[in-house]
Design brief:
The chain has one domain: 3'5'-cyclic nucleotide phosphodiesterase, catalytic domain (Catalytic domain of cyclic nucleotide phosphodiesterase 4b2b), CATH 1.10.1300. The protein is about 65% helix and about 0% strand. The chain contains eleven helices and no strands. The longest helix has 30 residues.
């Protein structure tokens, strides 16, 4: 882990739990590092956490919102990640929220409500939908979800790096019996995120600066996936005959 990320964690813990001991902070960070380094994370790594933290800073500076809850939720939101977990109830987001709650309860937090906020922000990433029933301001939810999806609106080069890493999370372990399954699931995700929604992002800033490029990136990947499905299908038919 690079020094910048370590310092980010230390400053965050000093803000939310100023009476916490250095050993406590280090132990929590060690646990986080071990989870993200479990071999299942290829895109959803600490690199993604660091990227998302920069977007949190960018958006909170614009919308004048507090950062601690958003940053803490960012650290924990992908801590449990199994690309092959298809349980509709015990999801990756659920397990990540449980780990966050368990770990944060050990800290002498100045405001215990932060645990509720972190837990529920993490759960929002399952469907990436705002929940107006939560005791969390709408703008906070919007900033968090937009930061998590910001990679979609980056340059084509960064977007390709993201999509390639995501593919490796599914195909490298060799658990999926067929790359066609991944292609189909990826298309389903892209269709749900962009092609079926009027907007990808919630905040005006992200819509103004990232929305157009995100749609171009997604449509380009969608067309590439169609081509891959066609080529894979043709190759399999040739092998069969």
């Amino acid at each position: 882990m690079d020094t910048k990320l370590i310092n980010n964690w230390s400053l965050l813990l000093d803000e939310i739990a100023p009476s916490s001991k250095w050993e406590e902070q280090e132990n929590l960070l060690s646990t986080i590092t071990n989870w993200y380094g479990d071999g299942k994370h290829v895109y959803h790594t600490l690199e993604h956490v660091e990227y998302m933290l920069t977007k949190i800073d960018e958006l909170t500076n614009i919308y004048l919102q507090d950062k601690p809850t958003l940053k803490l939720a960012t650290w924990y939101h992908d801590i449990y990640y199994d690309p092959f977990n298809v349980d509709a109830r015990l999801t990756n987001e659920f397990f990540s929220s449980v780990i966050a709650r368990r770990e944060l309860k050990e800290l002498p937090l100045t405001d215990k409500t932060i645990i509720y906020d972190v837990e529920h922000l993490i759960l929002l990433t399952k469907n990436h939908k705002i929940d107006l029933n939560l005791l969390i301001p709408k703008i906070i939810q919007e900033i968090f979800l937009d930061a998590d999806m910001a990679i979609l609106g980056e340059s084509p080069e960064l977007y390709k790096e993201y999509s390639d890493k995501l593919k490796k999370e599914y195909l490298n372990p060799g658990i999926l019996p067929d790359s066609m399954i991944y292609y189909a699931k990826r298309k389903e995700f892209l269709r749900k995120v962009a092609l079926k929604n009027e907007h990808i992002f919630y905040t005006d800033y992200m819509r103004d600066h990232y929305e157009e490029q995100a749609r171009r990136n997604i449509i380009d990947e969608f067309l590439k996936l169609d081509k891959l499905i066609e080529e894979t299908s043709r190759r399999k038919n040739n092998e069969y005959f």
